[in-house]
Design brief:
Blueprint (H helix, E strand, L loop, with lengths): L2 E7 L6 H14 L3 E7 L6 H5 L7 H5 L5 H4 E3 L1 H7 L10 E5 L5 H8 L3 H22 L3 E6 L5 H8 L3 E6 L3 H19 L4 E9 L7 H4 L16 H11 L7 H9 L2 E7 L2 H4 L7 H4 L4 H16 L1
Helix pairs in contact: 1-15
Length: 302
């Protein structure tokens, strides 16, 4: 039975598209069949990762102007290319569906009447059903628009699990708490599971203790922040509320939601000039291991 997982956030810039894309790619590499949907209607970006263009867009499908086969693109070859052929058994498949980046297509969807909106909600439900019947995926992964928006709510409503992605900061925490109380509490009443997914948590490349304390001491060029993971967590704790500071526990306590995993900030990924599938290209990178941990958590909890 396919598991449908939606990646959502209170605001943009939390890295949910990067995480969703890498999860889908690693699952495909492992031999699973995955359908990845870019339903971030206002800022679609899967094209940057896979370089594929469909015959028709998800916009067309949701308006009844396309069939599911018209909008889903086989991107398995991209996974093979980035994974350098390292595919478990070779049975994995990845199909992606993308929204159009043209502003007139967004305006067209937003200008629908109430009956048109209801029709599009029915198409959301039908999309999931047809993906399952036509492609037999193990996972359907949805990248949604951030915030409380019509398209986000529809995407969340068809998911089995909701991963609310956030960075650790007051704006994200307050907004996430609002989403949890106003939206997620209603959806989980009907059987959906919801989890917090912390991203870009301090700990991978924050300053050394000497710099954090205002002392500019000479350091060996090889003695960089990436090699002092545990020390950095201690430094960050001291700077953010003492040794007992626990952002995951704080956010979980406020929202009542369990943290499924926490991914540190990796500057070499965040500030890369080109979006790419790091978990495939650099399987030994700590980020790749975090994606593996997230996949294992999803397998056990979703």
């Amino acid at each position: 039975m396919a598991k449908c997982i939606a990646f959502h956030s209170y605001k943009g810039g939390t890295g949910k598209t990067t995480i969703a894309s890498n999860c889908a790619a690693v699952l495909t590499k492992r031999g699973y069949k995955v359908a990845l949907l870019d339903l971030d209607v206002y800022a679609p970006s899967l094209y940057a990762y896979f370089g594929k263009e469909p015959r028709k867009w998800l916009n067309d499908y949701l308006q009844g102007d396309a069939d599911v086969e018209d909008v889903m693109v086989d991107a398995t070859d991209t996974v093979r290319e980035y994974a350098k052929g390292d595919m478990a058994g070779g049975d994995g498949r990845l199909w992606i569906g993308m929204c159009s980046m043209k502003k007139e297509e967004v305006y067209k969807m937003e200008s629908n009447s109430l009956e048109g909106s209801r029709s599009q909600l029915r198409r959301f439900i039908l999309l999931r059903e047809q993906l399952i019947s036509n492609y037999s995926p193990d996972y359907i992964m949805i990248d949604t628009s951030p915030g409380i928006r019509y398209w986000s709510i529809n995407a969340l409503a068809v998911a089995d699990a909701l991963l609310l992605t956030l960075k650790v900061g007051e704006i994200d925490i307050d907004g996430t708490n609002r989403l949890a109380s106003e939206i997620y509490s209603s959806l989980t009443k009907y059987g959906a599971k919801s989890f917090l997914l912390l991203n870009r948590v301090a700990g991978y490349c924050v300053p050394d203790a000497a710099f954090a304390g205002g002392k500019q001491q000479q350091h060996d060029s090889n003695d960089n922040a990436h090699h002092h993971h545990h020390q950095h967590h201690n430094d960050d704790a001291a700077g953010r509320g003492g040794a007992g500071y626990d952002p995951a526990g704080l956010i979980s306590g406020k929202t009542g939601m369990q943290v499924i995993t926490s991914i540190p900030c990796y500057c070499d990924i965040q500030f890369s000039s080109k979006e790419f599938l790091t978990a495939l290209v650099q399987p030994g990178h700590p980020f790749a291991r975090q994606i593996e941990n997230l996949i294992e958590a999803m397998r056990l909890k979703v």
